[in-house]
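Aim 2, interim progress: modelling of the phosphoenolpyruvate-bound target.
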Amino acid sequence: MRKKIVAGNWKMNTDFKGGLKLASEVMNMVNDEVMDDIQVVLIPPFTHLFGIGQLIKGNKKVSLGAQNCAAHISGAYTGEVSAEMIRSVGADYVIVGHSERRHLFKEDNSVVEEKVKLALSYSLIPIFCCGESLDERNNGRHFQIINSQLEEALFELEKDELLKVVIAYEPVWAIGTGKTASPYQAQEMHHFIRTTIKEKYGEDLANTIPILYGGSCNAKNAKELFANADVDGGLIGGASLKSRDFTDIVKSF
Ligand code: PEP
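Predicted structure of the complex, ligand included:
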């Protein structure tokens, strides 16, 4: 059985007080309403990590993640936050290669690869994001794009390293747009990702690795997305900012 995961990427939203309130509402609802086999990950801004880490300490259903990490171990990188720092405040997960990082901050596959390796070396679970643009899909290049993102940023890893990674398929045209991939499109790409991993690393690993869907997933469409054989949960942006909506998504398996 693969792990089911629903992660909430808050992006650059909420102040510290608002973040603590949101985290505590989600934690209470998850404690009361969600089965033990689903892992919930809260991914607030960096400034909230320590406080929310303290709030959820010891909670088995709710974990903490960061939205990004530096591609360097330490040193003169003003404004950057290292994987080691993130780990030291109690986070277990870190998003790498989110499309907003790739596009707005020009992070390419080699930078993403560096971040994945650093995350793993500090015992963080990378949530590795991949996804095609609308142009790439319209030109029929979506499988090729995902394949090269996997090849160039993940496939240098050893089997025992890749085993610790979570993949999130996030079509860029669906992120924050209100346009969701259809259940068919999501399943088709998740199956492609799993098959690509199988060809390189074998069936056991391919069947173990969780693949999440992200892109305008909400409490209304989550059920039909999560019902697909290769969809193991979601990476949720906008809808993770409302505790009721987010918890309803978590309950959509
Ligand atoms: C995201 O940013 O990872 C995301 C999926 O955003 P949204 O749910 O708002 O489309």
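The first helix runs from residue 16 to 33. The first strand starts at residue 4 and ends at 9.
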